[in-house]
Amino acid sequence: MGLRFSVDEELCIGCGECASDCPYGVIEMQGDSPRIAGEREGICIGCQHCLAVCGPGALSIHGLHPEDSLPLAGRLPTADQLAVLMQGRRSVRRYTGTPVAAGEIQFLLDTVACAPTGINNRQVLFTVIDDCQVMETLRRATYGSLDAVIREGRLPAGMEFFQAMVEDALKNGKDNIFRGAPHLLIVSAPKDSPSPEADCHIALTYFELLAASMGLGTLWSGLAKWALVMIVPEVLQRLGIPENHQVGYMMVFGYPAVTYHRTVQRASTHVNRVQALAAA
Ligand SMILES: Cc1cc2nc3c(=O)[nH]c(=O)nc-3n(C[C@H](O)[C@H](O)[C@H](O)COP(=O)(O)O)c2cc1C
Prior knowledge:
Blueprint: E1 6-7, H1 17-21, E2 27-30, E3 33-36, H2 49-53, E4 59-60, H3 79-88, H4 102-112, E5 125-129, H5 132-151, H6 162-172, E6 183-190, H7 196-213, E7 217-220, H8 222-231, H9 233-236, E8 245-254
Antiparallel strand pairs: 1-4, 2-3, 5-6, 6-8, 7-8
Helix pairs in contact: 4-7, 5-6
């Protein structure tokens, strides 16, 4: 299929930005005109920097056209706005049962799919539970299977604390693992992809910030990951995540049943500022 690369010669000003910004030198200038350096075509990673960097919008690649991209001028949030979002985001552990609309979940996933991935491989898989009933079934299956593991004395070493948690859930209905959230997002990537862990963590970080800006609450759930990956993988297997995938992390989300009125105050910025290299 090739790179489906084309340049509108009437719009192109021959600035060479597309060639300069191409991380793999796939585009070269021939006089004032960009073109694909034939022998390098196969190493294009599909990052679309050429499409994004072209001021006049003269360049199409992979069959994508600049007019279908979001223009950026005057549309970016200010640093202050982002800083408030980052400082004001909280781990939400109390949720209303109200489901998040399918369109909102799709908007979140589509946006988060733009997060960076190693070598732009973009193989992160978003396994999402958007149906509250399915979430309820998962909750019950998880606690039921954990209970069975505990009764059979099969809790892995170091995971003994799950016993009290499961008792609390079964006796008092307290859901410490999923925090009663109506939705769960599990992010995974192929084990042999360039950077599965980083890709998954970045995707979830994007997800939680965008979700916070939409009035949604999120919680990274290490407990869910430990439970489903390490203790009751038979439950995880029911979610259809491919076997060759590594689970990066899990995040519950929904509408918060709690309002935070101010930021917390963290005084722990650990910086190692290198002013000179130590002697070799
Ligand atoms: C990787 C990771 C795993 C976490 N797992 C859990 C968890 O299983 N249960 C929980 O209640 N909080 C969990 N948290 C939330 C942290 O406890 C929380 O981020 C921290 O207390 C700071 O609070 P804040 O997020 O509101 O700033 C997790 C956070 C991270 C980053």
